[in-house]
Amino acid sequence: MTHRPEREYSWAQVCARRLERQWLAAPSHGASPAEIVRAMCGAHAQVMPAAELSVGIRGAGTSRAEVRKALWEDGTLVRTFGPRGTVHLLPAADLSQWTGALGDLPSNPALGQFLTPGQTDEIVAAIADALRDAELTVDELTDAIVARTGAWAADPVMPAFQAMWPRWRAALGAAGFRGALCFGAGRGRAATYRSPGQSLQGFQPADAGPALGWLLRAYLQAYGPATPAHLARWLGAPHGWTAGLFDHHRGELAQVTVEGSPAWVLRSDAGPITTEPSGVRLLPYFDSYVVAGQPRELLFPGAASTRALARGQAGNYPVILIDGVVRGLWHHRRSGKTVEITAELFDPAGPSRLEELAQEAERIGNFLQAEARLTLGAVNVGGHA
Question: Cα separation of 235 and 227, whole Å?
Fold first, then answer.
């Protein structure tokens, strides 16, 4: 897919657009948690406190209670399996589009060692039937699946956390992708699963073709300009497959350049960018801005490429953004009504930047309902600590 570039953008202009669209240039004063998550194209939620903070920092006055209410009471957010098969918060109103698109992704070849395509289909059908009117723990779901498929589904063959999981769990992500399950509220310390249809009347995945176009547009709206390789990395899909998706929708896209390298935007986004990125932001673990944002070498320049990435993977460290680029690390530790925040800047900062950093630390404290105490110094904790 080669065209003559319609416009040239600097990296600073790209950052300015992404920050604005994700309410990181300035927090929203009216968006709901679901609207914030939609702008992010999903919030990574393997670690729920980090997901709550990702949403909270994008809303002026958005509280942790509001995020939890949207998820567990109002049902405007859903916790399920999203890009790369990782746990995400997604807007409930968009779930049919998400499942229609993700359910059509090429299957992960690594899972073929545990399940055939036919076995995967059988297990997903069993999960859908078991959760139609129930909310079950993993052990309860194992029993329900075995009752519907056979003992083979419980064979302990999947290595995980110094244990062996039952065979059926290789299909857990596929069940989420196809809309057969999402996370429930939990039972004590035990995670639970339920059917999205229990709270979304008439729910079913959208047709794959239109849904994939919707997902491509949503990604480019939030993270464009981008390339098929960028989308492939975000989705955990083959590059050739995403290249075909771009080509299929070429009439909706415009080719541009970013610092001389070709990329694509929605045709409606091919106009000038007149703003400049500004501001200091503290992003938690796995914030979508850095996980979905590409190219890595521009987003994580200099010391950030070694200090803030884990073997090239973004999200394992909370990062400090300055003008949309990773320029430091931070870490927080709660102690009673106080949250101790340590911030490490990779380059010297002037008084105005340090004042912004202090204001951001205060915002983190407010969200966590604690008094923030900021210390400048080295962050020595390991990734995902």
Answer: 13
For position 383, what pLDDT does the model report? 73
In the three-class reduction of DSSP (H, G, I as helix; E, B as strand; rest coil), residue 384 is classed as: coil
Q: What is the DSSP string of 30-47?
A: S--HHHHHHHHTSEE-SS
Domain 106-204 has CATH 1.10.10: yes
Condensed to tens digits (0 to 9), the pLDDT of residues 253-294 reads 999 999 999 999 999 999 999 999 999 999 999 999 999 999
User: Helices 64-72 and 48-56: crossing angle, nearest 10°?
Assistant: 110
Q: Phi then psi for 196, rounded to 5 degrees? A: -60, -30
Spatial separation of the C-alpha atoms in residues 211 and 217, rounded to whole Å? 10
Please say whether the dihedral angle defined by the alpha carbons of residues 267, 273, 279 and 280, taken in this order, is positive or negative: positive
Could you read off the pLDDT of 66-92 as tens digits, one per residue? Answer: 999 999 999 999 999 999 999 999 999
| Distance of alpha carbon 317 from alpha carbon 88, whole angstroms | 18
Indicate the pTM of the whole model. 0.95
User: Domains of the chain: which residue ranges?
Assistant: 106-204, 280-376
